[in-house]
């Protein structure tokens, strides 16, 4: 008579199937977590195909209705900044002096001294920075204060009567106009 040796419990077909299922489930879960963490990292490392605000011309609303030769602060130049999965609405401010339907001067709203926001004093016809007392004429030239250079002009184009501005940031506190 042959002696029958019992199969260890861990080797029974039902246990093997359970073990394989749990191994597969664990591998799928770890693969999902790896993918979930890798996509944002790769998105961050690869530059977006839309380019930055340095390449875009943004529409300045209400340009056709502006009066001529009067500095006007425009606050609704909007853009969308995308960093990986985070989308942020960005609102830029610019100063616009419309000279004619097809000619304008566009200034950044940041003082070249320390990037404070300056205002236009219509009683004296000058731009005045409240932070450290820099004063600029309508042509952007510094006529008083510590600002090391004139107001920063921005590239623009006028198409179909509408103004489009290429918004840029410049380094503050230096005599040269250098993009930040």
Notable characteristics:
180 residues, alpha+beta, Rieske Iron-sulfur Protein, 2 domains, four-stranded antiparallel β-sheet, three-stranded antiparallel β-sheet, 1 helix, 10 strands, elongated
Major pleated sheet: 4 strands, antiparallel
Q: How many individual domains? A: 2
Question: Rounded to an integer, what's the Rg over CA atoms?
Answer: 31 Å
Number of helices: 1
- The average pLDDT is 86
Assembly type: single chain
Neighbour order of strands in the largest sheet: 5-6-7-8
- Sheet/helix structural class: alpha+beta
CATH fold group of the largest domain: Rieske Iron-sulfur Protein
The share of residues in helices is 10-25%
Span between N and C termini? 92 Å
Instruction: Kindly estimate the percentage of residues that lie in beta strands according to DSSP.
Output: 25-35%
What is the succession of H and E elements?
HEEEEEEEEEE
CATH class assignment of the largest domain: Mainly Beta
Q: What is the count of β-strands?
A: 10
Tell the overall outline.
elongated
CATH architectural group of the largest domain:
3-layer Sandwich
CATH homologous superfamily name of the largest domain? Rieske [2Fe-2S] iron-sulphur domain
Low-confidence stretches: 50-54
